[in-house]
Write a structure and sequence with these properties.
Four copies of one chain form a homotetramer.
Chain A (H helix, E strand, L loop, with lengths): L8 H6 L2 H6 L2 H21 L8 H9 L6 H11 L2 H12 L13 H37 L4 E6 L2 E7 H25 L13 H6 L4 H14 L16 H30 L2 E2 L19 H25 L10 H26 L3 E2 L1 H26 L4 H22 L5 H6 L8 H9 L8 H19 L14
Antiparallel strand pairs in A: 1-2, 3-4
Pfam family, one (chains A, B, C, D): Lyase_1
Protein name (chains A, B, C, D): Adenylosuccinate lyase
EC number (chains A, B, C, D): 4.3.2.2
Chain lengths: 481, 481, 481, 481
């Protein structure tokens, strides 16, 4: 690591090796060669055998990974054109084929198709990590499906939910992300061999005006590069609209993770749920005892950045002029890798956290007990209505007393005396015993939370995980905080 | 119109009545009543016949649209709660049912379900307009599939395309938008009857612990409201993640329209393509002759705003704490209508423009002629390679002469003399006659553009429009500039 | 209020009448007339007395507010040009002057100058409200400058601060906002009389080539409109860069308010600090006892929207082509009022909340007591170092025990036993009595918080408020939640 | 360069060495040491001579740059705390001082102060480059202050301006950026020595309750670090609001550059103005003749990214909870360097382009000539009004004919015949000779453009450059495209 100049923290600190490699020069330039091979083979197969020979193809395939980067870089400095520099270097390795490499193609033939291939592979990594997080959350949700914990609206105590039920909400969000990944992959097609402005003019010339052959060759190139289809029409590039959808799909994951992370940070304050804490980890230089939710805080920040990248792609797409302007180049060169690297970093954290979260049931219970009299008011309302009171009337009475009880707690630091207040009020048709009975039955406050959790896991989540069997589970989620 | 205070321009200037109505108080409050009716009916059907009677249901249905807004507003000012105010007002109209309206429900039961219903209907309007734009563009593309026009990369002349082929790129973008609308609609489900924090605790109580009945009732409410399914799990609200996808889907349309509008504004400068210009329209106070592309400029600005709204929803979703915080309320109240109204305004413009665009073939041709010698260089390169020259060598020679010819044009205002320069160069294996021949055959420069256009329209666009037969075509696209 | 179509909630719900009026048609069109009067007067003063007469000027001044909006609107529908429509209508009222209204001007003469005048007035309203909030916070900070409350980092207990000291942080942020308002106002100048593309060509003609007179007239118009200066150079409009700074300045206020609001929402959960709660306000339909921080939640949402608007202006500015494109029109028409209205709404809430916040000292104390043993560790570290231990060693020991004590609390729900654990450890050079002494002296934990608060208020805040004496204090901060 | 993993393109491609170094680990860690030295010296000066000795201070100063990064990194891996790891490593180098390094401080003492120091230095680099751009533009503007070129509104021909006058608009924008840089620098203060939550509790203890000494020491530390002042109040960190302003200030430069770059790209299409083109630069693989405005396109993309970063800082600031949450860490670690590096890259390009722009006067003239009859209409309107026609009447007549003439050009590709059409119309009080006279006098169409340019340069720009004499002019603006 060079300490004299800026180093990108995404690489030096947060991301997995696999994702870093996908966006390396090596990956890019070898994929360019795969594109050139696919093109030459397809041209050969559809009849350009007077120009292209089997020997040339063999030579090209043999040298796919045989790149002398220094020669290419030197050539690029000279002619200021990266694609032509690599055509040149490939030609040095393939003297026989040197005249037919990139035949009829424009730079974006290799650049666009390579972008698409890398994104396809990057999404496979992302999906794999996402599934692992879903799996972790599902197992955790199942384990704690019955453990009551205080539910909050306005971050004020509402009714209890269960630890597990709350987890299903995060899972549902992630499954929506997964659905959009699949949607994106269904939209992702090869850019194929379309020529300078998308008209395939040069290829039509090469194939002496045979439209059908040009069309088939285009499709063949796509297949050789692992795509089932090509974009029907392109300009010089595939539509930059696709980038916008890519970024939104990843930002969706960021947003889901952010929502989870913020909740976790609040739960950490409440001492109900904590992220794993590594041995030897120092809370802070001065406050050793603290269990700072640093992973969740980092997730929050990384997700914020990821979400902040998405709009860029819309601006770029919507400001492309005609067949293409190059204001997309520098920003895509930074933002596409950043989107994937950030998502990778976030999911690494999400996997790590969900693999070993710590629950404190006594604390969960403590919070409920302090609010139970308040929370029982809905039950009391219902019960009173069933005894014939108007909902409006009992609502008013209960409101009045609960505000008073709330004040007692806040202003005098005393215990919650709501039940006694209600029992003492003649308008309320319950004795103190009846009221205490209502509170005593704690399981009645969590409604269908355990059942909802079980149903959702059984009917939606585990079947989905089964469908992706074998496509996840091996990611590296070791992180440093 | 009240001229003493601010008036929202989206309503006063840009949008269709149909969309304005969807986001009216009337639509909202009558839909709330439909939700209450669906709830009461479902509760009745699954057995709460001791509390709810057929007569009550009849009364509720009869008064669905019978709202005294002033009473509700007065009550809201008093109790500061809009849902309870409308429960009260509905109760005045339905004295028998007054005790069972909203039974077991929380405010978000009506608020969320109504939001979802309105969004479903709003997307139907949007889709209809979008299809009409696609239709307009497809017909226009077919008509001009063979008319050559200069293609640009870097906004510098590249190779020619055709007017029609370029239109297919806009269509392809819009079809991607359409695909994402369908995707969104497949994700949109009822929020159903889930209770205060999503546990259905109150409903479980009402149904005396019968889980199956609560589940069925939830599903039944959804069906009555026109949904095939409900979200399996919710917090107090349906996941705000869905909002994010809604906004991205609409922003996608904005971005597609923006790209089109910017191109049109450039074409207007080039005098190749113009938007319709109304009789009596004044270009500007001082420059009467101008044909300002004001619709396209307005589209650009509206689309920019629409795209700028999307990130808000991600921030809201990702900062929701636990079962819900109310920092979503004011912003959703503004941004959801704005998203749909902006999209409506943009599509109105897009329909209007594409229904009557003006092409100037002589200008299109003039631009090509000025650049034809340059554009022939690719052909010359190909031809020279086929005569045995190395691509690199001929590339260098042609480059040298074309730069010189370019200078002649720019610096001396003279005609393009590239062909003569090449003919005079001994290294170039072509006579001036051969070179002129290359230029003369203009149809050879547009490659497969006409065929691509036809194929795409025939194989993708018209079949799609057929599938949506009857779901579009009647929108109002009269606009004022 | 029309309930059949969408109504902008900013107006119907959140903002002050004064701000709504600033962005009304009435304000706009009467200000246009003021611009026309200023122009005609200045032209007259610098010598166009052959064309313009004192009688005409008198007529124009007399009819400044005499606008028949329906006639203007009808004319606009006919000629599709709002400025010319109002020139026409003004001409009807001023038959003598009708030929010289708008003489030599382009539409943007009235549009830009009016925009700038309205923004200047809007900023005065904003500044006034901002100062009131600072005042409220300052008084509150002074009152509670000594009341300890738990400080948090990572939202984990850190060391105590005081209620008042924390308030100074919000004040400091708002003063930075105020500084940027003043900075903006120093950048805001008249657009003046610059002509169609900024060259003043028509005016130069009117003044028969007298450059000096054109320049002086331009300056004179500015002065008549209340500006000390004009932009030295403009295109058709004043630079859209200024809009960007306007929006950022307001977004800054939004961000400051958002930070405060989020803290308040957390404090509300902690029961330490609450926003005012109105009589008759209903917490929620089902949970009457709740003291939901709804104002703070609304501030959060409004601020999010405000912050989300700022980027639009940068995109508009940076995409203006040459002397002006009209993609700025629709978006500015919406976003400029929205920025000011949102800020107005936020400051109304901020004034309201800070005028009557409720502190619960017993709760503040309770939170500190639970963490006091932990918080004393820094003191213990310092003390041990002063007794000769290495900071590293004692850090490790304290860390070990505080983690164990933390676990006791979380896992067993028992009291914090850290002091006893330390006393029992031979490596620690303190007896239990010494340790308890350290805790007992609570005032030692808040450091200089009271003094910092006093110093800051005395040296920075109150002097600043004095400088603005008379410019604030009368705003309407009555709000509805 | 490691080609196996992702490399940040900002560093490998676009930025200056000086800026890269500012954000290096070396710069960061040596500045941390400077902070520790300043702290120890100040503590010593204000009386902690029983703990701190002159010898210790000498040792610390001597080892300021003597860092063994590998030891620090290994320690960090062990204890997971970068600041404590460097305290440890510094202690190894300074055995005598090891116990007093970082005495009473929290991590943010070094982190925040270092951030602020680096930003101050980075802004100096930015300002220097910005001034050079202003200088280049000013010289260019002066040179071409009289050269007419077509002005555009709606990107439709309006009236002519001059090349130089248009440049003054870009200068004005950049001077506004400069003003905001100075504003920012006036807001930037030291974070100073404030302690864990900003209360200076530990320092108060060290100074045995002497408030004045703590205050003076805080100020002294600031001075030693080159600041004239410290923030009066801080939480654990200086307010994150400052970051927001930093990012907006830089984004402003991005926006100004973007506006310029887009205009330049359009001018490049019009062949009126071109960026420099390097020898050996290859336009594209297939189109050698093209003079692609690649620098301006790159500026556009980089500026888009820069502008897209600014909102992140507002989100971070406004979501900081209480005295600090660590969701700011990862995103600031990436976004602060990115903001400065992007601005650096943009200004490098801007300097490069403006140092050698190519004007084509013949092309500028050609565009004016084609539109001159149209552009004369304003003159004709004015002249006709002065001959007694009503502005409305002549406006209508001219409009009618100019629309017809416009059609002739567009539809028939013929020359502009507007003058003849007007002469042939009896209602128009001018002969063809009079009309041709109006056109012939070309200098009359540019109004005060040359004078405005001169005045602005003389009165505003050059005096400003004089004030900054010696603070700019040496930047490296060599770039690779």
């Amino acid at each position: 690591m060079n300490r004299d100049i800026y180093q990108e923290p995404l690489v030096s600190r947060y991301t997995s090796k696999a994702m870093q490699q996908l966006f390396s020069e090596k990956k890019k330039f070898t994929t360019w060669r795969k594109c050139w091979i696919a093109l030459a083979e397809s041209q050969y197969e559809y009849g350009l055998t007077d120009i292209i020979t089997a020997e040339m193809l063999h030579e090209m395939r043999a040298n796919c990974e045989n790149i002398d980067y220094d020669i290419a870089a030197a050539k690029e400095r000279e002619i200021r054109h990266d694609v032509m520099a690599h055509v040149y270097e490939y030609g040095l390795k393939c003297p026989k084929a040197s005249g037919i490499i990139h035949l009829g193609a424009t730079s974006q033939f290799v650049v666009c198709n390579t972008d698409l291939i890398i994104q396809r592979e990057a999404f496979a990594l992302i999906r794999s990590a996402l599934l692992q997080v879903i799996k972790n959350l599902a197992d955790f949700a199942y384990k704690y499906r019955q453990l009551p914990t205080l539910g909050y609206t306005h971050y004020q105590p509402a009714q209890p939910v269960t630890i597990g039920k709350r987890m299903t909400l995060y899972i549902q969000d992630l499954i929506m992300d997964l659905d959009y990944i699949e949607m994106f992959l269904s939209q992702l097609k090869a850019r194929g061999a379309k020529g300078t402005v998308g008209t395939q003019a040069t290829f039509l010339e090469l194939f002496k005006g045979d439209h059908e052959k040009v069309r088939l060759m285009d499709q063949r190139v796509a297949e050789k590069l692992g795509f089932s289809d090509t974009f029907a029409v392109t300009s010089q590039t595939y539509t930059r609209k696709l980038d916008m959808k890519m970024a939104e799909t990843l930002a969706g994951i960021g947003a889901s993770a952010h929502k989870f992370a913020v909740d976790l940070r609040l739960l950490s304050n409440l001492k109900v749920l904590e992220e794993p804490f590594e041995k030897n980890q120092t809370g802070s230089s001065a406050m050793a005892y603290k269990r700072n939710p640093m992973r969740a805080e980092r997730m929050t920040g990384l997700a914020r950045k990821l979400m902040g990248l998405a709009p860029n792609f819309g601006v770029t797409f919507s400001n492309q002029w005609f067949e293409r302007t190059l204001d997309d180049s520098a920003i895509r060169r930074m933002d596409i890798p950043q989107c994937f690297l950030l998502t990778d970093a976030i999911l690494k954290l999400y996997m790590n956290i969900t693999s070993d979260m710590v629950v404190f049931p006594k604390q969960a219970s403590r919070h409920i007990l302090a609010e139970l009299p308040f929370m029982a008011t809905e039950k009391i309302l219902m019960e009173a209505v069933s005894r014939g009171m108007s909902r409006q009337d009992i609502h008013e009475i209960v409101k009045e007393h609960s505000i008073a009880a709330g004040r007692t707690v806040k202003e005098q630091g005393r215990d919650n005396d709501l039940m006694q207040r209600l029992a003492d009020d003649d308008r309320v048709p319950f004795s103190i015993d009846e009221l205490e009975d209502i509170i005593a039955d704690q399981s009645g406050f969590i409604g269908r939370a355990p059942e909802q959790t079980e149903e959702y896991l059984r009917e939606a989540v585990y079947p989905l995980l089964d469908r992706y069997e074998g496509q996840f589970g091996t990611q590296d989620s070791i992180i440093t905080v």
